Amino acid sequence: MSAHLFRDGLEESGQTGAAIEAEQRTAAKIVGFLYLIQMAVAIFGQSFVRDRLIVPGEAAKTAQNIIQHEQLFRLSIAGDLFVYAGVLVLVWAFYLMVRPVNGNLALLALLFRLAETAVLCVATVNSLVVLRLLSGADSLKGLDLGQQQSLVALALSAQGLGMNVGFILLGLGSTIFAYLLLRSRYVPRFLAGWGIFSSMLLVTGTLVILVFPSLRVIGMAYMGPMGVYEVSLGLWLLIKGIQATAAQSAVPTRVPV
User: How far, rounded to the nearest angstrom, does the alpha carbon of residue 136 sit from its chain's CA centroid?
Assistant: First the structure.
């Protein structure tokens, strides 16, 4: 009976009530590694490719840049798909890591992140549409140059809108995962708390801009805290891994009858 009471006390205090398994430690390392890799590839695609080729409000200049640097633009598309494949593995590993804390919430977070990845993959198709529009294919002969350039701008805009939808789903899933980290105490509480804050900020900021487009002037500043969280968490998990509290380590794997 005393063992059961001890376990109930741990659950009420937010502990998982079980020692960390080897599977969870391996999953944590995978999460840490993939957070860092996917962030590096995503930054390359955005900062060193799209920000240089896409000129807001200038469809002709954007089209010309993409034509002149087609291979670089294609490389950024491949990088995006690599990131999305990595995210699938990352959220699977994250699910394994926090499932013992609360399996139902872990599954909900997993579903949000899977939906996010599906939306982003579909949005990326717009980049392939851009290349098709600029290919000079016979099926496009009925469009003059100005029309083609306008359609290119529309396709890129549609991709951006799709990414906003994906960011909302990302933020929701990340909020739940961060909450489970907070409950588990696998990582420092301030880091998990920052994850909850930055994830909710991503959701809120994206929704506000969708409802009030004029606020787009704030740029992507509201995404900064999320980037800090993902890099910090990735480094922590890769270097330190997940840590069991003293109470968790003291719980026997089998409760005497």
Answer: 35
**Residue 109's Cα: distance from chain center in Å?**
12
Four-residue CA torsion sign, 23, 25, 31, 34: negative
Place of tokens 């799209």: 50
CA angle 50, 55, 57 (to 5 degrees): 135
Contacts of 199 (CB under 8 A, 6+ apart): 170, 171, 172, 174, 175, 178, 226, 229
Q: What is the pTM of this model?
A: 0.84
pLDDT tens readout for residues 13-43:
444 446 788 899 999 999 999 999 999 998 8
Question: Which residue from 119, 127, 120 is spatially nearest to 53, judged by alpha carbons?
Answer: 127
Q: Is 201 left (phi over 0), alpha (psi -120 to 50) or beta?
A: alpha
With residue 91 as reference, give the H or E element that holds it: helix 70-98
Instruction: Using alpha carbons, list the distances in angstroms from residue 143 to 31, 61, 136, 245.
Output: 47, 18, 10, 66
Tokens in use for 56? 């807001």
Residue range 56-93, pLDDT digits in tens:
888 889 889 999 999 999 999 999 999 999 999 999 99
d(CA 87, CA 34): 7
Instruction: Look up residue 179 and give its two tokens.
Output: 């909450």
- Rounded Cα gap, residues 98 and 91, in angstroms: 11
> Residues 6 or more apart from 174 whose CB is under 8 A from it?
109, 113, 195, 198, 199, 202, 226
**Hey, CA dihedral for 190, 196, 198, 204, is it positive or negative?**
negative
The burial class, CB within 10 Å (0-12 / 13-18 / 19+), for 246 is exposed
